[in-house]
Design goal:
Elements (H helix, E strand, L loop, with lengths): L2 H45 L7 H15 L7 H9 L9 H15 L6 H13 L1 H4 L4 H20 L2 H11 L7 H20 L17 H35 L5 H17 L9 H7 L8 H14 L7 H15 L7 H17 L2 H12 L4 H13 L15 H11 L6
Helix pairs in contact: 1-4, 1-5, 1-7, 1-9, 2-4, 2-11, 3-7, 4-5, 5-7, 7-8, 7-9, 8-9, 8-16, 10-13, 10-14, 10-15, 10-17, 12-14, 13-14, 14-15, 15-16, 15-17, 16-17
């Protein structure tokens, strides 16, 4: 027997298990702290609506801190994807505290944003610390990026299977090696159980009844799934549009969220409601039982795209859940399917389209809503994925596979918008 080879294999295995434990525990702990803090600042804002008028000051503070420490960090999730595609420079650890602080300020003062971006960026920054600790090369750093994304996503949403698959799928699934797959699942569960250890509760959703699949149901699934895909396309384009507009018109970066904060606070005052700011979880929960107005999802797209585009911090995924759930809920008025099923399908299908991750979103739907709805959710995620355009919320994400081939042929025909 080759004992040296066995010894080397065991040492490498031990090294990566240690890395997964470190990333999982520290990322899970960071997410637990973040979730508790986010709940606290949300309650403060809900109890003191006047605080929304301080949104411009919060924006100026966020903009100045990012500009002062490292403007590169403003790329957020895109920086992690860039480092996966072309490993060059370490992800600055300052990304973790800055995105945590920036997201809490955004939610405290009334911006419309999510939380996945924060958890994923904290996970990525924590993961890249292992580069120097374990003296990893560029190839191994790519695995670290996957582990950071997996740990952050799994811990913040309480969906370890979806978190592991999301990390693998979002970075270009068919180029992933077997080691990354195993480690992604391992770190996702470590991060998930770390949050469970702190007794942090995640929001629960349910689809009480799922009808039998027939041709009529399939017809309506296809119709609503196309709409979910188009909603995902609109969301992604909106965020990119506002980002480009602010970059072109306001040259000094710290002023972008300041001016954006003024616009947001005045707009919130005049529309007379705060239901489109923050995470919007109460609206998402209600969407499973109460039909939404047909404009709710559009206003959430507008508020979130503007908030993130002008420079406030947070994620896009929970707002995507809001958009999909409220759109599905609104469609229940005309579509003969249960309202909870439509809301659940939209919840994950819009996310699927905006991130190009139909496999992870299908698994997430089954983790959240039960395996009984899996067929409906799977079809919705795949259809929305193909109808959501070629550019998702992550501009640095590389699009490959069947969707890439489809949109290359579309562009050749002159339909460049998609």
């Amino acid at each position: 027997m080759d004992f040296e080879r066995i010894k080397k294999t065991m040492l490498i295995t031990l090294k990566w298990i240690s890395i997964c434990c470190l990333i999982g525990i520290f990322s899970g702990s960071a997410s637990a702290f973040f979730l508790v803090s986010l709940e606290f600042v949300t309650q403060v804002r809900n109890n003191h609506n006047w605080i929304i008028w301080l949104l411009p000051i919060g924006g100026l503070l966020i903009g100045y801190l990012y500009f002062y420490f490292d403007p590169k960090i403003t790329k957020g999730n895109n920086l992690l994807l860039e480092e996966y595609n072309k490993p060059e420079k370490r992800v600055p650890f300052m990304m973790a505290p800055l995105v945590l602080f920036g997201t809490l300020i955004t939610h405290l003062f009334g911006g419309s944003a999510g939380r996945e971006g924060t958890a994923v960026q904290m996970g990525g920054a924590i993961a890249d610390l292992c580069t120097s600790i374990f003296k990893l090369n560029h190839s191994e750093r790519r695995t670290l990026m996957i582990l950071g994304i997996s740990a952050g996503f799994a811990s913040v949403f309480g969906t370890p299977l979806a978190g592991a698959l999301f990390a693998l799928e979002v970075v270009f699934f068919h180029k992933i090696n077997f080691r990354s797959i195993v480690l992604s699942f391992l770190v996702a569960y470590i991060a998930y159980f770390t949050v469970e250890f702190y007794e942090i509760k995640h929001t629960h959703y349910s689809i009480p009844s799922v009808p039998n699949m027939d041709f009529t149901a399939l017809f309506w699934i296809l119709i609503v799934s196309v709409l979910f895909g188009l909603a995902a396309l609109l969301f992604a384009r909106s965020t990119h549009f506002w980002g480009k507009l602010f970059s072109k018109t306001i040259k000094y970066p710290p002023l972008r969220p300041f001016i954006g904060g003024i616009v947001l606070s005045v707009t919130i005052y005049f529309i007379g409601t705060t239901k489109y700011i923050g995470l919007g979880v109460p609206m998402i929960v209600d969407a499973f039982s109460i039909p939404n107005a047909p404009y709710d999802f559009l206003l959430k797209i507008l508020f979130t795209g503007f908030t993130l585009g002008c420079g406030f911090k947070g994620g896009e995924v929970t707002p995507l859940f809001f958009v999909g759930a409220t759109l599905g809920s609104a469609l229940s008025v005309v579509v003969p399917l249960p309202i909870a099923l439509l809301a659940g399908m939209g919840f994950v299908a819009v996310f699927s389209g905006a991130t190009h991750t139909p496999i992870a979103c299908t698994i997430m739907g089954m983790e959240l809503f039960g395996i009984e709805s899996g067929l409906y959710i799977g079809i919705a995620c795949i259809i929305a994925y193909f109808f959501s355009g070629s550019v998702g919320i992550y501009k640095s994400q590389i699009l490959k596979g069947p969707k890439s081939i489809l949109y290359q042929s579309i562009r050749k025909k002159g339909l460049k918008y998609f």
